[in-house]
Amino acid sequence: GAVVSQHPSWVICKSGTSVKIECRSLDFQATTMFWYRQFPKQSLMLMATSNEGSKATYEQGVEKDKFLINHASLTLSTLTVTSAHPEDSSFYICSARRGVYEQYFGPGTRLTVT
Amino acid sequence: AQTVTQSQPEMSVQEAETVTLSCTYDTSENNYYLFWYKQPPSRQMILVIRQEAYKQQNATENRFSVNFQKAAKSFSLKISDSQLGDTAMYFCAFIPLYNAGNMLTFGGGTRLMVKP
Questions:
Q1: Distance in Å, alpha carbon of B107 to nearest chain A alpha carbon
Q2: Could you tell me which residues are beta bridge partners of residue A94?
Q3: A10-57 residue pLDDT tens
């Protein structure tokens, strides 16, 4: 059990367009999900904490108007990168929390902005 | 605030040998969990092992074991009988039990290469 999916796994978009990434907990309910960004050969950087039914909490330096997060249900959180630019190209990973400390990670989404 | 430090950016080991990855952390919390995650080339994060801070006994999962030194705030991972499939990035992570948010704090990672 404890499977988290992400869709799409890979997306290419043109500069100026928006792209949505979905994160789903498939076999458990998650009131809290997390969004990370990972650059090549680096660690995971927490972008925001997504709470079901309330506004996301963004980490310092993350533009909330560029990275829109919606946690509309107990199994789905979405990250929308608005007006994407090449510098937004990265690997985005979500995780879903079950219980107090268990976090299960999605397989990640590679975003390339041309 | 918590910090997690992995002082070895890269390591290599011969297949079937043993390797130890280092991790230190800094926190004022007394109740927390520590984790080692593996990120293979597929980039899927996989939980390798977990240690509860209140437990003195070191956690073990098959070929993976930890050396948890709470006073020294050290949490190293030992991989025995290394296999080619162990080649990956390894991240040490910390989570406080009772702080709001319960967010994971990751170390910078250690890239492990297992050589045939």
A1: 7
A2: A35
A3: 999 999 999 999 999 999 999 899 999 999 889 999 999 998 888 899
